[in-house]
Write a structure and sequence with these properties.
single chain, Metal Binding Protein, Guanine Nucleotide Exchange Factor, Chain A, eight-stranded mixed beta sheet, 2 helices
Length: about 140
Amino acid sequence: MSEGTERKAHCLCGAVRMTAKYASTSAGACHCSMCRRWAGGPLIAVDCGTEVSIEGEEHVSVFDSSAWAERGFCNKCGSHLFYRLKETGQFMLPAGLLDDEGSLTFDHQVFIDEKPPYYRFANETKDMTGAEIFAMYGASE
């Protein structure tokens, strides 16, 4: 990712601070079962590319959640910090961690085929199934 906005983020306790050099201006929701279990609902995140610097790395724990991705969290306060693709190092940061989250546009949803029926977003979004996401990234389930 070479376009975007520099965005700063931090966990609940402030022990971990991140700067994404090229963060997207849009946010999307992931409805996959892993994200819902991890976040307690859909994960609303921002694609922040690969150039993310982390201060307080000694407070970051990483969970190897699948063959293609890992998830980071603050080991002091438990805040979810990132979802990172192993092959590319691409970071997705939870939108709520960003200092300027109000400037985001919510415009896409992924794993829409795994979304449970008890919630629905009103925004007009581009919706993609899990199969479409795996095909886009050249990964297998």
